[in-house]
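quick q for whoever's on today - can somebody do inverse folding on this one?? i tried earlier but teh output was garbage lol. tokens:
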């Protein structure tokens, strides 16, 4: 920031240009705000209204689904053989005993209908059977209503009452479903009283999340249920419009949304004031304007350095040359002014190219060294190997094989610890440690497959503290295991892998051999041509393990290590590592 301010104060030309840019940006910002209000605001308002319309339709759909369940419950009751039989007995032997039996049958039927509070069944002679329990005076008032009489006198009519409150220890919201049914040869009027507390709760929750209030009206437009927020809006002088053919209407107090509940003919009315509607997208609108302002401010930070570069090319070139004096030979000049300064810039760039050519060999060697060390790290563990090992642990866990889980987990932990033993990115480790890593790998693979193979070590104790390249043994043992000893058809691993080590005056010799199927002669010839082998296999993406080992040996021993692959009753890989 200080450097930027210094550039601004150091040049009057920069100050003039920046002031002009600031003026243009203020004008542009004002135009952006105006255009956003004219073009973007109506679009955001329309989207918010569409979301509110969809929410109101969803509430109406939830209500319709709930009241439809009442019709299903009524059919379940009237089609019951138990009810039919008890009614037949009553009409054969009228009396209190069989009357109570009918009521008891109705009561038994509704015990499995959790939301049904009670049922009243009335025949054409005026005899009423009921479910005995849970009915209140508010329920029986429905039976004396005009709605009930209208339905009773029309065989093909069904009706839903409005939602009403039943006084109890806790208020229960209820409604009635009235319909005529034939049970046997007689016609009955069935009245089913339904607990709609869950429905009311759903309406309240959905409404409060979006609207300032909601109400339900009957087909005549009379409100029979409303949320507290809707009632407050009404009492505050924002008189709700309870019916409209449109999905929504815009008024001075806000927006009203309408949807019809198909099964009942009710109207779902929701109210949203302007503040609530605008709040749903005001934040997005404000963020858009804030982004424009931020871009304007950032422009200044980029413009000042740009102008300074234009008018002060010599100063920039001297700064670049100063970095070279401090040892940075990658600083090139970007000055192209078509004058003497541009010529000087070109000569300077040519000088940098010439210096870089002289040190290219050293840089190339360092790049290869970094790449080799990186290859060493990524060669230590395979992500698929970890994934498969964890799958084995899960399988053992489901089978309750605790001992096996402990063994395989201990082995995997040892291997992962080896991956973390990097320190200064060491390229070697002790023979003892590398043997231990192979043993842990062997434990895991033995549990993963039907492994009938043996791993034999022929390593003198005196050699176990010697250092060899890190992760040298495991990839070759793995190749022997899967390419030498595994039966391609059955997947069974059978045979022996022998690791032998000895030491001469000049070399440390490692031989890893198996008694498996061996390698074909053309493939063997190909594998023993190091240059062609490493180039082609890296291009194909195959045998990366062997290629990685050859590269690391070449790097560590500067081309003096030897690695041969031959058939010897199986496959034998011999590595001769110079001691010096």
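ok took a stab at it. sequence:
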């Amino acid at each position: 920031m200080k450097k930027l301010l210094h550039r601004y104060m150091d040049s009057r030309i920069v100050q003039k240009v920046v002031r002009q840019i600031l003026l243009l940006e203020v004008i542009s910002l004002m135009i952006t705000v105006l255009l956003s209000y004219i073009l973007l605001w109506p679009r955001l308002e329309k989207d918010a209204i569409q979301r509110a319309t969809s929410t109101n339709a969803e509430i109406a759909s939830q209500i319709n689904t709930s009241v439809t369940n009442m019709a299903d419950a009524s059919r379940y009751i009237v089609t019951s053989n138990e009810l039919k039989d008890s009614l037949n007995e009553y009409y054969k032997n009228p009396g209190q005993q069989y009357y109570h039996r009918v009521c008891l049958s109705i009561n038994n039927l509704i015990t499995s209908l959790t939301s049904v509070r009670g049922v009243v069944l009335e025949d054409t002679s005026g005899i009423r059977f009921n479910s005995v329990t849970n009915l209140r005076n508010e329920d029986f008032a429905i039976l004396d209503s005009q709605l009930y009489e209208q339905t009773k006198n029309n065989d093909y009519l069904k009706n839903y009452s409005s939602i009403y409150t039943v006084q109890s220890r806790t208020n229960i919201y209820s409604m009635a479903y009235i319909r005529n049914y034939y049970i046997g040869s007689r016609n009955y009027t069935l009245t089913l009283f339904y607990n709609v507390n869950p429905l009311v709760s759903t309406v309240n929750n959905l409404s409060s999340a979006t609207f300032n209030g909601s109400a339900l009206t009957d087909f005549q437009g009379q409100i029979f249920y409303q949320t507290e927020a809707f009632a407050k809006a009404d009492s505050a002088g924002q008189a709700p419009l309870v019916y409209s053919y449109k999905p929504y209407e815009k008024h001075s107090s806000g927006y009203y949304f309408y949807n019809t509940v198909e099964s009942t003919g009710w109207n779902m009315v929701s109210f949203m004031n302007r503040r609530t509607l605008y709040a749903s997208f005001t934040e997005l609108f404000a963020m858009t304007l804030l982004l424009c302002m931020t871009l304007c401010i950032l422009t200044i930070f980029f413009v000042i350095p740009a102008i300074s570069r234009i008018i002060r090319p010599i100063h920039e070139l001297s700064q670049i040359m100063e970095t070279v004096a401090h040892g940075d030979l990658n600083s090139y000049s970007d000055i192209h002014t078509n004058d003497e300064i541009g010529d000087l810039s070109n000569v300077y760039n040519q000088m940098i190219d010439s210096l870089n050519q002289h040190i290219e060999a050293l840089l190339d060697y360092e790049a290869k060294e970094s790449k080799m060390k990186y290859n060493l790290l990524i060669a230590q563990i395979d992500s698929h190997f970890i994934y498969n090992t964890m799958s084995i642990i899960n399988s053992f866990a489901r089978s309750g094989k605790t001992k096996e889980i402990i063994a395989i987990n201990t082995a995997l932990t040892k291997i992962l610890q080896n991956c973390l033993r990097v320190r200064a990115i060491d390229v070697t480790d002790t023979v003892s440690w590398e043997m231990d890593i192979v043993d842990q790998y062997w434990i895991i693979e033995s549990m993963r497959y039907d492994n009938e193979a043996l791993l034999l070590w022929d390593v003198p104790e005196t050699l176990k503290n010697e250092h060899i390249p890190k992760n040298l043994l495991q990839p070759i043992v793995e190749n022997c295991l899967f390419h030498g000893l595994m039966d391609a058809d059955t997947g069974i691993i059978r045979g022996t892998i022998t690791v032998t080590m000895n030491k001469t005056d000049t070399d440390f010799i490692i031989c890893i051999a198996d008694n498996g199927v061996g390698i074909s002669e053309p493939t063997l010839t190909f594998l023993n041509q190091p240059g062609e082998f490493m180039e082609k296999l890296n291009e194909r993406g195959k045998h990366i393990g062997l290629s990685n080992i050859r590269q690391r040996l070449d790097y560590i021993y500067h081309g003096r290590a030897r690695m041969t692959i031959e058939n010897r009753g199986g496959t034998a890989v011999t590595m001769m590592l110079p001691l010096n």
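fwiw The longest strand covers residues 172-183. also Confidence is low (pLDDT under 50) at residues 532-542. so keep that in mind when u check it
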